[in-house]
Each structure stands twice: as structure tokens, then as C-alpha cells.
Amino acid sequence: MNKSKILSLSFGKNVAKIRKAQGLTQEEFGKKIRLSKRAVCYYEKKSHDLPSADLIVKMCAVLNVSFEKVLNWQIPKEFSEHQKLWKKLRRVETLPPTDQEAILNMVNHFLKRKAV
Predict the structure, then answer these.
(1) Class assignment of domain 1-116?
(2) What is the pLDDT of residues 77-102, one digit of tens each?
(3) What is the pLDDT of residues 97-109, one digit of tens each?
(4) Rounded Cα gap, residues 52 and 45, in angstroms
(5) Mind spelling out the 3-state secondary structure of the chain?
(6) Interatomic CA distance for residues 2 and 85, integer angstroms
(7) Averaged confidence pLDDT in the chain
(8) Given a cut of 70, is residue 63 above it in pLDDT?
């Protein structure tokens, strides 16, 4: 199994574990992120695909956890020189979802501009 499939399965298990720990059913969680219970189940148990970045941000906001936690990521040692950036990105998670989305759109804009 390739790394992206392992990551997506790990993601689903982590989301389910966090959701259950917070006492949310799949249906309740789905309503908060505007997905059906079936779609939540798909991402938690059956999907080999990660949801969109926007949906991951919504899930993290509702669960009040970092994206690193749901993706089971750790800051790689080679990024230690960019600790200020990582710390600021972590603080973005405390903002309201609309602000998080605006920041994500701005980052995407700069990345697309850089790719041209």
C-alpha cells in the first residue's frame, strides 16, 4: 500500500477516534460539517482518498484539534528553522472557520502565483 493510502486510512481512524471521544455520532458530526452520515462513514472507514483541504479544515474546527493531530503528522526536523511559521499556522486553527478559509484561500493564491 502506498503512503497516501496509509495516510488516508490513518486520517479516517483518527477522525473517528476523536469524534467518538467527544461523544459525537457520525450523523451529528456530519451535520456540523455539512456531510451525510454515509459520507462521514466513508471517510472514517472506507476511503483511500483524503477529503479536500477545505473539508479537513472544517473537520478540525468542529473537533477543535490541529490538522497535524488528525493526519498524525509531526513537524519534520528539516523544518525546525521554520518554527515561527509552524507556530503561526497552528494558531490559525483557533480562528473561526471563515477566517481559516480566507487564510487558506490566500495561501493558495500565493502558491498558484509562484507556480506560474
Answers:
(1) mainly alpha
(2) 665 566 777 777 778 878 888 988 88
(3) 898 888 888 888 8
(4) 17
(5) CCHHHHHHHHHHHHHHHHHHHCCCCHHHHHHHHCCCHHHHHHHHHHCCCCCCHHHHHHHHHHHCCCHHHHHCCCCCHHHHHHHHHHHHHHHHCCCCHHHHHHHHHHHHHHHHHHHC
(6) 29
(7) 81
(8) yes
- Measured CA to CA, the distance from residue 113 to residue 12 in angstroms comes to 32
d(CA 86, CA 30) in angstroms, rounded, equals 29
User: How far is Cα 79 from Cα 76, in angstroms, rounded to an integer?
Assistant: 6
Residue 26 in grid coordinates = 457520525
